[in-house]
Amino acid sequence: MVRSVEWKEGKVKILDQSLLPEEVSYIECDHYEMVADAIRTLKIRGAPAIGIASAMGLALAAQDIKAKDFDTIYRELKKVADVFISTRPTAVNIKWAMQRMLKLLKNHRQESIERLKELLVEESKNILEEDIEVNRAIGVWGAQFIRDGDTVLTHCNAGALATGGYGTATAPILVAKEQGKRVRVIADETRPVLQGARLTTWELMQAGIDVTLITDNSAGALMRKGEIDLCIVGTDRTVLNGDVANKIGTYTVAVLAKENGIPFYVAAPLSSIDPTIPSGELIPIEERPPEEVTTIKGRRIAPEGVKVINLAFDVTPARYITAIITEKGAFRPQDIRKLFMEGINLSEIRL
Ligand code: MRU
Predict the structure, then answer these.
(1) Which of 131, 89, 98, 136 is nearest to 245 (CA)?
(2) How far is the CA of 143 from the centre of ligand 1 (A)?
């Protein structure tokens, strides 16, 4: 299984996804700023993966702190957490991971400083291992929507590379294959950073999945020809009303799917659901440098000085989403709010 990030001998080891598929090369981060920079520059990307990397980055930062009292350490690590949260504003997993790490610190404030540093490393490793388990569970709940012989369209990369392992949108596909179903995947190339072309095809081919690459603007034509049975995508932030932020172009795919009567599923670990935001238009949308659009591998493809809009994500309204698949089951988007209610019986709202 591909490992996008891991804690290795006191360092954070990151697979440099910006070089894939040509080169499989790792960065060994020995300072938290290196981890933050790897996140900003998309060497590691995908909401759960950058949450895990941030947690490990925070644990790394803790090792360098010289202060001996809890309050100073907490204050310094809170500042580091804010650095990570600012690296990529749409993915809520970073905030989620930072809150979890800081809460652990607070809950163990009576421990020695050396023990606190160990606990932070252990917690970041737990976040990684739990993510893999969560993805397996998403796979098991999601595989019920894939029939033998189905073709699944996916957008961007919500696979092993985007997570601790196994992927979110890819998990139902991998489980369906384990169940003996024949599954074919159509991967949108996903301009401008080409996560579909460079990453999704690469990892699915390694996993022995039948995958075909298309340009983003081919999705509608293939749907119309009846070649797509269902869509499964990931999410950077899902909110209480079931609206979902994911890679730019996801909204287009969802509208096309509805027009063509094709089910559209979102694989969303609970760590990607933000219960503090009521509705999609309040999700912060990251804008990225214009060069991602005006150049390909350093070669200019548009006139110097042209104006560019480069939104990294879009919001798909809940009405386009057939179901949101979490580790606790698949739910109608309008039932997402209920996941956060005390004492709710999930089996009553599960699909
Ligand atoms: O800009 P990226 O490559 O980080 O965008 C990633 C996505 O849009 C994924 O679909 C999302 O993070 C879910 S990953 C399981």
Answers:
(1) 89
(2) 21
